[in-house]
Specification:
The structure is a single chain. The chain is an alpha/beta fold and about 425 residues long. Helices cover about 35% and strands about 20% of the residues. Strands 1, 2, 3, 4, 5, 14, 15 and 16 form an eight-stranded mixed sheet that branches. An eight-stranded parallel sheet has the order 6-7-8-9-10-11-12-13. The mean pLDDT is about 95. The protein is globular. The chain has two domains: about 110 residues, Urease, subunit C, domain 1; about 290 residues, Alpha-Beta Barrel (TIM Barrel). The longest helix is centred in the middle third of the chain and has 18 residues.
Length: about 425
Amino acid sequence: MSHPKTLLIKNIRILYGIDHRPYPFKRGKAMSFLDHIQNAFLFVDNGTIVDFGPQDSCSYETADQVIDATGKFVLPSWVDSHTHIVFAKSREGEFVDRIKGRSYEEIAASGGGILNSAKKLQETSFEELYRDAEKRLKEVISFGTGAIEIKSGYGLSFDAEIKMLEVIKTLKNKHPEIPIKSTFLGAHAIPSIYKNNRKAYIDIILNEMLPYVAEHQLAEYCDVFCDKGFYTVEETDLILKKAATYGLKAKIHANELAISGGVQVGIANNAISVDHLEETSQVEIDALKNSSTIPTLLPGTSFFLNIPFAPARKMIDDGLGVCLATDYNPGSTPSGNMPFLLSLACIKMKLLPEEAINAVTINAAHALELADLYGSIDIGKKAQLLITKPMESLAYIPYAYGSDLIDTVILDGKIQS
């Protein structure tokens, strides 16, 4: 899609999220620092930031498009590094079951949960899956998301997993304005027909799914749900090691339901990130401190399932950097609303607004290996930006939870309608 070559945003009340090369992953106290310029301008040429600074130093009088951001803040767009937005049907019936007292594990054990989604997805056409996933993609963009990861994992058969990954590939091709990273999550659950023969399904992952995914370049990452009632540490290690031979980097669902050993096996396999971590002890925190693996926390899951929140405050105070992501999926987090995620992080995890924003911008960009071009403001970075509505303070974004505070979303230098 063609777009105006140049864009000038002028009279910005505050330009937030400035970084300069190299773009470090922010840890500990650095997470509370969000570099900014008051009364600023920003100039974009052909989708790339080429200049910014104080308004009184701006030499640009015009551009193909001009936005007057008087009273408004400009930030790098959000990066959502953990989602499952390709799915067949919603699961509000299970939502009601949980209200009545059934646990997530009980629902999963009786054929609900991931297995429920897999059954529905296997019966859904590629065209319908694509149409619904594209709607969700456009929805999260409207919330300010400008880069995203999408997982498979609701197929749980060769044909259905590949169908999901082909949907993600088509989204990538048809929406070049937003970088999309694809993750193969065939090891999301054990299908019902393999309940008494786990090895047979794992062999299909190892010997059929992984070679095909790699040959057809359908994913950058391989994920495993290493947790109580799902995949063991040994099974996880086996899958990740085989995935690595095909060039697929590791990501992990770990410690959502129990201290599972998932963090440690992720670190041992050089995982880019270990995600969830609602159940985390000092042992896991210390292990992460001695690694380059990124702890990615999903407060929307804790909110929706009414389970503990990951100990983000302790992690940061101990010197760790964290990333936040939505986990948008039909069972445990049916929302991709990133501003609400910031509210949860501040209210329930005690993050400062600046820490929460760093966690969903520059740190999240590192979790998708996109930090060279996305996640902060600098000359040469892509113009993935959001402009807020007029406000007095950055803290107003998490404070005014539920309010629509995003005025304009800009992807690849183009204003999104």
